[in-house]
C-alpha cells in the first residue's frame, strides 16, 4: 500500500487530535502504580515499561530518579512522579546549588520526552527520617526554585508523601488534627503546597488500620466492600456516614488541614494497597482480600464518588505496588504487596468489570500466538533468537530432553517462544506479529506434556516483558542494539524488512 504525503499529513493531524483529547481528559482522577525495586530479579526498565503499556497504566511513581527508567519512559505518554530519596534530603535541604544540580540532572535532562508531572521530596519523612524533617521545607523550596529557573514550575509540582499516622484522632474525621509536634514544619509545608497549587500527598493503608484496631474496624469496612447503612461508621459531630476506612482517612486529612486554616489544598493518595500473603499472625493478608481491596479501590476512584466531605471530587491514587519485592525486610506481608511477580505474571486477576482498561490483567481469554505456516525460516529463526535473547522469554522448555523440544524444528520452537511473549505482554494488540511471521489463533498449540503459556488462563513459566520486534504501529520496533544481538545474518534480514516497510509507507 502506497501512502501519499497528503495522507501521511492527515494521519498525523488525526493522531495529534487524539492525543490532545486524551491529555485534556486526563486531568480527572486517575489510578497510578508505585514501582519499587527491592527485587532479586528486577526487570530491565524496558521490560517494566512494556508491562505498564500492556496493562494500560499511564501514571507511575518512582522512589528515585533512576536514569534507566526515565529513559525507558520517554515518549510513552506515561505520567511520572520522581522522588528525592530520603538519604539525599539533608544535602538538598541545606544547599540551593545541590538542589539545582539534582533538578538539572534528573528532571531537565529528561523533560519533556519523559512526562514528569511531580517530584516527591522524600517519603514519610516525619516517621522515617525525623532528623531530616527540619530541612524538608527548605528542600521543597530549593527544588521549586530550580524548576522556576528552568520554567518548569507550572508543569511539575513539588510535594512530599506523608504517613497517615501523623494524623491523630482520625475518627471521627471532623475532630482529626496533625501531630502538633510537627506543626513548625507542617504549617509552612502546607502553606508551600497552597501557594504552588500542589497536592497534600498521603499514604493510606487500611490494612494496617484494620490490623492495629484489635477488632474495632470490621474487615469489610477496611476492604471498601458495600455496607448497609446501619453498618457504616457515623461521625457524631457531622452525622456523616462513612462506609470505608479510605474515605474516612482522606476526610481526616482535610479536617486536619482545616484545623491549620488551610481549606483549598487537594489530597492525593501516593500509596495504598493490601498484601496478598502474610505470616501466620497475618491471616487477612490473602490473595482474595488483596484482590478485593485493590479492585474496589480502582472502581471507587474512577467512578468519581469522592468522599463525604468532598462528594464528587475523586482522589487520584497510586496503588502500592507494581511488583512483589522479595528483598523487602520484615514480615512476609512486606514482600507481597505487588500486582505482578517479577516475571510479569499477575499475582491475581483483578475484578474490574465495567472499570475501563486500566490494569486490564485478565488473561483468561483463550487466544494464542503461533508461527505462520510457510513463513521464511530465516525470519522465523531471527525472531526466535530475539524472543529467547533480548526478549527474555524462558526458552528452557525447548532444550533437548525438555517437554517442548519435540518436534525439533524452527516453526514449533518459534510458536512456543512467540506465544510465551504474547502472554507476558498481556496479549496486548501488536505483540503477536514478529515482522509478519506470527499470527493469533484460538487453537491451543499445547501437545503432550508441552503446555503452552495461557492455556489454563494463567501465564506459566518464568517470562518477563519487553517490546516485541513488530512492524505493527501499536507496538514499538526493536532497537538497533536488539537487532544486532540477533546475529549478523538475522540483523541484515530484519534490516531489509525495516527498509522495505519504510519505503512502502
TrEMBL record:
InterPro entries: GH (IPR017853), Glyco_hydro_17 (IPR000490), Glyco_hydro_17_plant (IPR044965), X8 (IPR012946). Its main location: membrane. This is glucan endo-1,3-beta-D-glucosidase. Its EC number is 3.2.1.39. PROSITE patterns: GLYCOSYL_HYDROL_F17. GO terms for cellular component: plasma membrane; plasmodesma; side of membrane. It is a lipid-anchor; GPI-anchor. Residues 367-452 form the X8 domain. Residues 1-25 form the signal peptide. It is found in: Cell membrane. It catalyses: Hydrolysis of (1->3)-beta-D-glucosidic linkages in (1->3)-beta-D-glucans. It comes from Populus euphratica. It holds the Pfam family X8. The gene is LOC105112982. GO terms for molecular function: glucan endo-1,3-beta-D-glucosidase activity. Gene3D superfamilies: 1.20.58.1040, Glycosidases. Keywords: Cell membrane, Disulfide bond, Glycoprotein, Glycosidase, GPI-anchor, Hydrolase, Lipoprotein, Membrane, Plant defense, Signal. Belongs to the glycosyl hydrolase 17 family. GO terms for biological process: carbohydrate metabolic process; defense response. It comes from the Eukaryota.
Amino acid at each position: 500500500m502506497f501512502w501519499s504525503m497528503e495522507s501521511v499529513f492527515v494521519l498525523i493531524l488525526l493522531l495529534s487530535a487524539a492525543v490532545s483529547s486524551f491529555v485534556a481528559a486526563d486531568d480527572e482522577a486517575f489510578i497510578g502504580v508505585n514501582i519499587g525495586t527491592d527485587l532479586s530479579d528486577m526487570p530491565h526498565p524496558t521490560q517494566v515499561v512494556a508491562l505498564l503499556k500492556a496493562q494500560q497504566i499511564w501514571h507511575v511513581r518512582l522512589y528515585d530518579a533512576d536514569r534507566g527508567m526515565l529513559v525507558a519512559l520517554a515518549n510513552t505518554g506515561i505520567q511520572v512522579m520522581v522522588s528525592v530519596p530520603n538519604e539525599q534530603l539533608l544535602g538538598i535541604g541545606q544547599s540551593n546549588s545541590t538542589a539545582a544540580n539534582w533538578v538539572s540532572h534528573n528532571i531537565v535532562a529528561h523533560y519533556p520526552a519523559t512526562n514528569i508531572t511531580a517530584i516527591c521530596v522524600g517519603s514519610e519523612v516525619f516517621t522515617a527520617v525525623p532528623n531530616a524533617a527540619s530541612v524538608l521545607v527548605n528542600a521543597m523550596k530549593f527544588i521549586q526554585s530550580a524548576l522556576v529557573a528552568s520554567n518548569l514550575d507550572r508543569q511539575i509540582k513539588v510535594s512530599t508523601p506523608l504517613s497517615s499516622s501523623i494524623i491523630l484522632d482520625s475518627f471521627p474525621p471532623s475532630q482529626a488534627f496533625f501531630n502538633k509536634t510537627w506543626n513548625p514544619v507542617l504549617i509552612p509545608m502546607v502553606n508551600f503546597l497552597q501557594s504552588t497549587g500542589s497536592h497534600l500527598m498521603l499514604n493510606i493503608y487500611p490494612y494496617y488500620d484494620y490490623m492495629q484496631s484489635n477488632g474495632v474496624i470490621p474487615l469489610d469496612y477496611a476492604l471498601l466492600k458495600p455496607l448497609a447503612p446501619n453498618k457504616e461508621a457515623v461521625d457524631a459531630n457531622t452525622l456523616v456516614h462513612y462506609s470505608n476506612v479510605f474515605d474516612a482517612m482522606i476526610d481526616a486529612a482535610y479536617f486536619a488541614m482545616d484545623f491549620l486554616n488551610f481549606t483549598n489544598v487537594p489530597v492525593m493518595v501516593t500509596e495504598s494497597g493490601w498484601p496478598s500473603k502474610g505470616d501466620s499472625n497475618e491471616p487477612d493478608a490473602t490473595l482474595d482480600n488483596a484482590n478485593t481491596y485493590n479492585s474496589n479501590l480502582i472502581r471507587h476512584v474512577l467512578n468519581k464518588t469522592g468522599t463525604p466531605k468532598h462528594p464528587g471530587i475523586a482522589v487520584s491514587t497510586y496503588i502500592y505496588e507494581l511488583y512483589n519485592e522479595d528483598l523487602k525486610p520484615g514480615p512476609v506481608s512486606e514482600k507481597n504487596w505487588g500486582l505482578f511477580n517479577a516475571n510479569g505474571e499477575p499475582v491475581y486477576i483483578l475484578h474490574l468489570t465495567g472499570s475501563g482498561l486500566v490494569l486490564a490483567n485478565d488473561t483468561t481469554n483463550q487466544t494464542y500466538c503461533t508461527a505462520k505456516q510457510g513463513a521464511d525460516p530465516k525470519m522465523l529463526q531471527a525472531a526466535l533468537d530475539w524472543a529467547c535473547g533480548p526478549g527474555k522469554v524462558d526458552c528452557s522448555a525447548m532444550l533437548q530432553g525438555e517437554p517442548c523440544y519435540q518436534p525439533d524444528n524452527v516453526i514449533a520452537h518459534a510458536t512456543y517462544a512467540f506465544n510465551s511473549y504474547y502472554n507476558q505482554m498481556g496479549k496486548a494488540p501488536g505483540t503477536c506479529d514478529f515482522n509478519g511471521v506470527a499470527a493469533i489463533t484460538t487453537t491451543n498449540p499445547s501437545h503432550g506434556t508441552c503446555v503452552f503459556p495461557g492455556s489454563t488462563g494463567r501465564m506459566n513459566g518464568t517470562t518477563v516483558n519487553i517490546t516485541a520486534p513488530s512492524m505493527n504501529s501499536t507496538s514499538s520496533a526493536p532497537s538497533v542494539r536488539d537487532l544486532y544481538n540477533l546475529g549478523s545474518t538475522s540483523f541484515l534480514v530484519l534490516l531489509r524488512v525495516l527498509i522495505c516497510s519504510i519505503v512502502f509507507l
